[in-house]
């Protein structure tokens, strides 16, 4: 099975210059915890609700109007929509990420592959293995992008 058969298509994205408030409101409206970040039409990062709390609010800063690029995980890990689902899962396991941006052949954002997508599409044994490997605790003090 290829990633494009399991992924969530047409994900929402935000511009790197968008304010934290705008992104948080978009997360609430969409009921999501992670959104791809774009700059000049290219994927440049991922922002999660956890990023906002750990990298922003935990330091006591008033971050509402700051640009999201200050808090996002830069250099996002991604896969191709034509990649084998098993290979994408291994990539998620290796990087301990729960949501993987999916790019089309022209390097445009085509979708997101989440643990939820995997649980619905992959064989039970593979999805269970993925959940176990991705969910293992990170090293203390290390911020792991979701």
Count of domains = 1
**What is the C-alpha radius of gyration, as a whole number of Å?**
15 Å
CATH class: Alpha Beta
**CATH architecture identity:** Roll
Distance between the termini: 24 Å
Could you tell me the mean pLDDT?
88
CATH topology: CBS-domain
Largest sheet: 4 strands, mixed
- Main-sheet strand order equals 1-8-7-6
**Beta-strand content bin:** 15-25%
Helix content: 25-40%
Strand segment tally: 8
Shape: globular
CATH homologous superfamily annotation? CBS-domain
Primary descriptors:
146 residues, CBS-domain, 5 helices, 34% helix, alpha/beta
What does this structure look like?
The protein is an alpha/beta fold and 146 residues long. The protein has one domain (3-135): CBS-domain, CATH 3.10.580. Helix content is 34%, strand content 22%. It contains 5 helices and 8 strands, in the order ββαββαββαββαα. It has helices at 20-30, 49-56, 85-95, 115-121, 124-135; strands spanning 8-9, 14-15, 34-39, 42-48, 73-74, 79-80, 99-103, 109-114. The strands form 2 sheets. Strands 1-8-7-6 form a 4-stranded mixed sheet. Helix 3 runs parallel beside helix 5 and helix 4 (115-121) runs antiparallel to helix 5. It is globular, with a radius of gyration of 15 Å. The model is unreliable at 139-146 (pLDDT under 50).
Secondary-structure blueprint of this entry?
Layout: E1 8-9, E2 14-15, H1 20-30, E3 34-39, E4 42-48, H2 49-56, E5 73-74, E6 79-80, H3 85-95, E7 99-103, E8 109-114, H4 115-121, H5 124-135
Parallel strand pairs: 2-3, 6-7
Antiparallel strand pairs: 1-8, 3-4, 4-5, 7-8
Helix pairs in contact: 3-5, 4-5
């Amino acid at each position: 099975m290829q990633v494009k058969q399991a992924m969530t298509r047409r994900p929402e994205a935000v511009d790197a210059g968008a304010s934290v408030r705008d992104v948080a409101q978009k997360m609430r409206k969409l009921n999501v915890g992670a959104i791809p970040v774009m700059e000049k039409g290219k994927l440049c990062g991922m922002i999660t609700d956890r990023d906002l709390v750990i990298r922003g609010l935990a330091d006591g800063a008033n971050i509402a109007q700051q640009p999201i690029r200050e808090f996002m995980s830069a250099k996002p890990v991604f896969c191709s929509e034509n990649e084998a689902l098993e290979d994408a899962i291994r990539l998620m396991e290796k990087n301990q990420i729960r949501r993987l941006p999916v790019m089309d052949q022209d390097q445009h954002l085509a979708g997101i592959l989440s643990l939820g997508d995997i649980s619905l599409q992959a064989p039970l044994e593979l999805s269970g293995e993925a959940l176990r490997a991705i969910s293992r605790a990170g090293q203390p003090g290390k911020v792991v992008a979701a």
